[in-house]
Amino acid sequence: MAIRNAVRPGGRSARVQQSVHQAVRELEAEVGRAGLTVPLIADRAGVTPSTVYRRWGDLQALLSDVAVQRLRPEAPPADHGSLRADLLAWAEQFLEEMSSPVGVLYIHDALAGDPADGGAVRCSDYAVEQLKAIGVRAAGRGEAVPDVEGLLDRVVAPLMYRILFRPDGLSVEYVHRLVAAALEPS
Description:
Helix content: 55-70%
CATH class of the largest domain: Mainly Alpha
Shape: elongated
Distance between the termini: 45 Å
Number of domains: 2
Radius of gyration: 19 Å
Number of helices: 9
CATH topology of the largest domain: Tetracycline Repressor, domain 2
Number of strands: 0
Largest sheet: none
CATH superfamily of the largest domain: Tetracycline Repressor, domain 2
């Protein structure tokens, strides 16, 4: 069963989502991942297990939804005065957060959800939003800005591949090489 996408931004549905997500985070810290169950989460959140099953379908779908929300950036990318500096700072932060043990766990959870729900797409959209903000700011300064899809292909995709499959080659220097290559004129 897929997560319902058409949820009102406020009201009971939002309160249920918030309390269930909070319960997952608290219980994971208390009992560990292996100890998580839908009835335990529902009890902590103050809802019935059937509410959780109806909304998320199963524990993995719930964990995926929590991960997607946790991967959402909390703030727009910082302004460091130039496209290169903004992109470097953003990519370094992306590497640091996503390659952390918690970041990798959230990536795996997000990808393990129902593909029809679009959790992976929502995560990709977060990166797109951040890169667009960097680009709009750079264009406002009169800088030439590469297209977002090119930045995804040249910076984000290689980082995600390495984070998930070959973490031994990750470093700030690697990020700098990716950004430099992405900003080279075609």
